[in-house]
Amino acid sequence: MTVPAKPTSPQIYARFGGLLYLAIIVTGALGELFIRGKLVVPGNAAATASNILASETLWRLGIAGDLVMHVCDVFVMWALYVLLRPVSWNVALLNQLLNLIQTAVLVANKPNLLVPLFLLGDAPYLKAFEPAQLQAWSYVAIRLHEYGFGVGPIFFGFVCLVECHLIRKSGYLPRFLGVLMQIAGTCYLINGFALLLAPDFEGRLFPFILMPCLVAELSLALWLLVKGVNMQEWARRTGSASAEGSAATSLCQG
User: Fold this and answer.
1) Could you list the residue range(s) of the whole structural domain that residue 154 is in?
2) Is the pLDDT of residue 245 over 60?
3) pLDDT value of residue 153
4) Residue 220 domain-assigned (yes or no)
5) Per-residue DSSP letter, 31
Protein backbone atom coordinates (compact mmCIF):
# COMPACT_ATOMS: atom_id res chain seq x y z
CA MET A 1 0.00 0.00 0.00
CA THR A 2 1.42 3.34 -1.04
CA VAL A 3 1.24 6.10 1.55
CA PRO A 4 0.43 9.49 -0.05
CA ALA A 5 3.25 11.99 0.30
CA LYS A 6 2.54 14.77 2.77
CA PRO A 7 2.28 18.13 0.98
CA THR A 8 5.15 20.51 1.64
CA SER A 9 4.10 23.36 3.92
CA PRO A 10 3.74 26.71 2.13
CA GLN A 11 5.80 28.22 4.95
CA ILE A 12 8.84 26.33 3.65
CA TYR A 13 8.37 27.88 0.21
CA ALA A 14 7.82 31.29 1.82
CA ARG A 15 10.98 31.09 3.94
CA PHE A 16 13.01 29.73 1.02
CA GLY A 17 11.72 32.40 -1.37
CA GLY A 18 12.20 35.20 1.16
CA LEU A 19 15.78 34.19 1.93
CA LEU A 20 16.78 34.04 -1.74
CA TYR A 21 14.91 37.28 -2.45
CA LEU A 22 17.13 38.95 0.15
CA ALA A 23 20.16 37.39 -1.53
CA ILE A 24 19.02 38.91 -4.84
CA ILE A 25 18.69 42.37 -3.29
CA VAL A 26 22.11 42.17 -1.60
CA THR A 27 24.03 40.81 -4.61
CA GLY A 28 22.28 43.25 -6.95
CA ALA A 29 23.20 46.21 -4.75
CA LEU A 30 26.80 45.04 -4.38
CA GLY A 31 27.28 44.61 -8.12
CA GLU A 32 25.56 47.74 -9.33
CA LEU A 33 26.33 50.24 -6.57
CA PHE A 34 29.50 49.14 -4.82
CA ILE A 35 31.43 47.52 -7.67
CA ARG A 36 30.41 49.07 -10.98
CA GLY A 37 29.37 52.25 -9.20
CA LYS A 38 32.90 52.50 -7.81
CA LEU A 39 34.84 51.55 -10.95
CA VAL A 40 32.84 53.22 -13.73
CA VAL A 41 33.51 56.94 -14.06
CA PRO A 42 30.56 58.53 -15.93
CA GLY A 43 31.67 60.05 -19.22
CA ASN A 44 35.35 59.18 -18.74
CA ALA A 45 36.39 56.12 -20.75
CA ALA A 46 40.09 56.39 -19.85
CA ALA A 47 39.52 56.60 -16.10
CA THR A 48 37.01 53.75 -16.26
CA ALA A 49 39.47 51.57 -18.17
CA SER A 50 42.20 52.36 -15.66
CA ASN A 51 39.94 51.41 -12.74
CA ILE A 52 38.92 48.12 -14.35
CA LEU A 53 42.52 47.15 -15.06
CA ALA A 54 43.53 48.03 -11.50
CA SER A 55 40.62 46.04 -10.01
CA GLU A 56 40.02 43.29 -12.56
CA THR A 57 39.23 40.68 -9.91
CA LEU A 58 36.63 42.97 -8.34
CA TRP A 59 35.08 43.56 -11.77
CA ARG A 60 34.88 39.81 -12.37
CA LEU A 61 33.37 39.26 -8.93
CA GLY A 62 30.64 41.74 -9.85
CA ILE A 63 29.77 39.73 -12.96
CA ALA A 64 29.82 36.45 -11.02
CA GLY A 65 27.60 37.98 -8.33
CA ASP A 66 25.11 39.07 -10.98
CA LEU A 67 24.90 35.52 -12.32
CA VAL A 68 24.33 34.17 -8.80
CA MET A 69 21.57 36.75 -8.45
CA HIS A 70 19.86 35.52 -11.62
CA VAL A 71 20.09 31.88 -10.51
CA CYS A 72 18.45 32.88 -7.22
CA ASP A 73 15.80 34.69 -9.23
CA VAL A 74 14.73 31.43 -10.90
CA PHE A 75 14.25 29.74 -7.51
CA VAL A 76 12.31 32.74 -6.20
CA MET A 77 10.05 32.55 -9.28
CA TRP A 78 9.37 28.91 -8.47
CA ALA A 79 8.59 29.64 -4.80
CA LEU A 80 6.28 32.54 -5.66
CA TYR A 81 4.50 30.46 -8.28
CA VAL A 82 3.76 27.79 -5.67
CA LEU A 83 2.59 30.42 -3.17
CA LEU A 84 0.41 32.39 -5.60
CA ARG A 85 -0.93 29.49 -7.68
CA PRO A 86 -3.97 28.92 -5.39
CA VAL A 87 -5.25 32.40 -6.26
CA SER A 88 -5.15 31.79 -10.02
CA TRP A 89 -2.76 29.30 -11.56
CA ASN A 90 -2.93 30.85 -15.03
CA VAL A 91 -2.26 34.40 -13.76
CA ALA A 92 0.57 33.04 -11.59
CA LEU A 93 1.98 31.35 -14.69
CA LEU A 94 1.75 34.62 -16.64
CA ASN A 95 3.62 36.28 -13.80
CA GLN A 96 6.47 33.80 -14.04
CA LEU A 97 6.65 33.98 -17.84
CA LEU A 98 7.12 37.75 -17.63
CA ASN A 99 9.73 37.23 -14.92
CA LEU A 100 11.58 34.68 -17.05
CA ILE A 101 11.73 37.17 -19.93
CA GLN A 102 13.21 39.79 -17.62
CA THR A 103 15.82 37.36 -16.32
CA ALA A 104 16.69 36.18 -19.84
CA VAL A 105 17.21 39.79 -20.97
CA LEU A 106 19.48 40.53 -18.01
CA VAL A 107 21.52 37.34 -18.43
CA ALA A 108 21.94 37.97 -22.17
CA ASN A 109 23.16 41.45 -21.26
CA LYS A 110 26.01 40.19 -19.07
CA PRO A 111 28.58 39.56 -21.90
CA ASN A 112 28.71 43.35 -22.34
CA LEU A 113 30.58 43.45 -19.02
CA LEU A 114 33.14 40.95 -20.33
CA VAL A 115 33.94 43.04 -23.41
CA PRO A 116 36.21 45.51 -21.52
CA LEU A 117 38.27 42.60 -20.18
CA PHE A 118 39.04 41.52 -23.75
CA LEU A 119 39.57 44.99 -25.21
CA LEU A 120 41.78 46.18 -22.36
CA GLY A 121 43.91 43.04 -22.34
CA ASP A 122 47.39 42.58 -23.78
CA ALA A 123 46.59 40.27 -26.70
CA PRO A 124 48.85 40.94 -29.73
CA TYR A 125 45.95 41.58 -32.10
CA LEU A 126 44.86 44.56 -30.01
CA LYS A 127 48.01 46.45 -31.05
CA ALA A 128 46.23 47.27 -34.32
CA PHE A 129 44.15 49.80 -32.37
CA GLU A 130 44.98 52.91 -30.41
CA PRO A 131 44.53 52.67 -26.61
CA ALA A 132 41.96 55.47 -26.72
CA GLN A 133 39.88 53.49 -29.22
CA LEU A 134 39.92 50.37 -27.05
CA GLN A 135 38.96 52.42 -24.01
CA ALA A 136 36.09 54.04 -25.91
CA TRP A 137 34.75 50.70 -27.16
CA SER A 138 35.00 49.28 -23.65
CA TYR A 139 33.01 52.20 -22.30
CA VAL A 140 30.37 51.75 -25.02
CA ALA A 141 29.96 48.11 -23.94
CA ILE A 142 29.48 49.24 -20.35
CA ARG A 143 26.88 51.78 -21.48
CA LEU A 144 25.08 49.05 -23.41
CA HIS A 145 24.95 47.01 -20.22
CA GLU A 146 23.53 49.99 -18.35
CA TYR A 147 20.75 50.29 -20.91
CA GLY A 148 20.05 46.56 -20.81
CA PHE A 149 20.01 46.70 -17.02
CA GLY A 150 17.44 49.48 -17.22
CA VAL A 151 15.28 48.09 -20.03
CA GLY A 152 15.05 44.52 -18.68
CA PRO A 153 13.14 45.63 -15.58
CA ILE A 154 10.35 46.95 -17.81
CA PHE A 155 9.19 43.34 -17.86
CA PHE A 156 9.66 43.20 -14.10
CA GLY A 157 7.40 46.22 -13.80
CA PHE A 158 4.60 44.12 -15.25
CA VAL A 159 5.63 41.26 -12.94
CA CYS A 160 5.14 43.55 -9.94
CA LEU A 161 1.70 44.64 -11.18
CA VAL A 162 0.58 41.04 -11.68
CA GLU A 163 1.95 40.08 -8.26
CA CYS A 164 0.03 43.01 -6.79
CA HIS A 165 -3.21 41.51 -8.15
CA LEU A 166 -2.40 38.02 -6.84
CA ILE A 167 -1.25 39.18 -3.40
CA ARG A 168 -4.28 41.41 -2.84
CA LYS A 169 -6.67 38.61 -3.81
CA SER A 170 -4.88 35.88 -1.87
CA GLY A 171 -6.08 36.61 1.65
CA TYR A 172 -3.05 34.82 3.09
CA LEU A 173 -0.59 37.62 2.30
CA PRO A 174 -1.24 41.20 3.52
CA ARG A 175 -2.81 43.59 1.06
CA PHE A 176 -0.29 46.33 1.84
CA LEU A 177 2.40 44.21 0.17
CA GLY A 178 0.27 44.21 -2.97
CA VAL A 179 -0.02 47.99 -2.82
CA LEU A 180 3.75 48.33 -2.42
CA MET A 181 4.35 46.03 -5.39
CA GLN A 182 1.92 48.09 -7.46
CA ILE A 183 3.90 51.24 -6.69
CA ALA A 184 7.16 49.42 -7.45
CA GLY A 185 5.85 48.14 -10.78
CA THR A 186 4.78 51.63 -11.80
CA CYS A 187 8.22 53.02 -10.88
CA TYR A 188 10.02 50.30 -12.85
CA LEU A 189 7.91 51.04 -15.92
CA ILE A 190 8.42 54.80 -15.68
CA ASN A 191 12.18 54.41 -15.23
CA GLY A 192 12.57 51.86 -18.04
CA PHE A 193 10.58 53.77 -20.63
CA ALA A 194 12.16 57.08 -19.58
CA LEU A 195 15.58 55.52 -20.24
CA LEU A 196 14.46 54.61 -23.75
CA LEU A 197 12.46 57.70 -24.65
CA ALA A 198 13.99 60.52 -22.59
CA PRO A 199 17.43 59.56 -21.21
CA ASP A 200 18.11 63.03 -19.82
CA PHE A 201 14.85 62.95 -17.88
CA GLU A 202 15.63 59.45 -16.60
CA GLY A 203 18.97 60.75 -15.36
CA ARG A 204 17.10 63.18 -13.11
CA LEU A 205 14.75 60.44 -11.87
CA PHE A 206 17.44 57.87 -11.08
CA PRO A 207 18.07 56.60 -8.42
CA PHE A 208 15.24 58.22 -6.48
CA ILE A 209 12.47 56.61 -8.52
CA LEU A 210 13.78 53.16 -7.62
CA MET A 211 13.64 53.75 -3.85
CA PRO A 212 9.96 52.65 -3.67
CA CYS A 213 11.01 49.49 -5.55
CA LEU A 214 13.62 48.73 -2.89
CA VAL A 215 11.10 49.30 -0.10
CA ALA A 216 8.50 47.07 -1.77
CA GLU A 217 10.81 44.19 -2.62
CA LEU A 218 12.60 44.30 0.73
CA SER A 219 9.23 44.30 2.52
CA LEU A 220 8.02 41.28 0.52
CA ALA A 221 11.27 39.39 1.09
CA LEU A 222 11.29 40.04 4.85
CA TRP A 223 7.60 39.20 5.21
CA LEU A 224 8.04 35.88 3.45
CA LEU A 225 11.13 35.08 5.51
CA VAL A 226 9.82 36.14 8.93
CA LYS A 227 6.02 35.80 8.77
CA GLY A 228 5.30 33.60 5.77
CA VAL A 229 1.64 33.07 4.88
CA ASN A 230 -1.51 33.08 7.01
CA MET A 231 -2.09 29.34 7.31
CA GLN A 232 -5.81 29.62 8.08
CA GLU A 233 -6.43 31.69 4.96
CA TRP A 234 -4.13 29.41 2.96
CA ALA A 235 -6.17 26.36 4.04
CA ARG A 236 -9.41 28.12 3.15
CA ARG A 237 -8.10 29.21 -0.23
CA THR A 238 -6.50 25.88 -1.16
CA GLY A 239 -9.53 23.97 0.11
CA SER A 240 -11.92 25.97 -2.08
CA ALA A 241 -9.53 25.70 -5.02
CA SER A 242 -9.43 21.91 -4.61
CA ALA A 243 -13.20 21.77 -4.40
CA GLU A 244 -13.57 23.85 -7.56
CA GLY A 245 -11.06 21.61 -9.33
CA SER A 246 -12.93 18.46 -8.27
CA ALA A 247 -16.25 19.94 -9.36
CA ALA A 248 -14.83 20.83 -12.76
CA THR A 249 -13.41 17.33 -13.15
CA SER A 250 -16.74 15.74 -12.24
CA LEU A 251 -18.56 17.99 -14.67
CA CYS A 252 -16.18 17.02 -17.48
CA GLN A 253 -16.58 13.34 -16.68
CA GLY A 254 -20.34 13.67 -16.58
Assistant:
1) 10-122+129-238
2) no
3) 87
4) yes
5) I
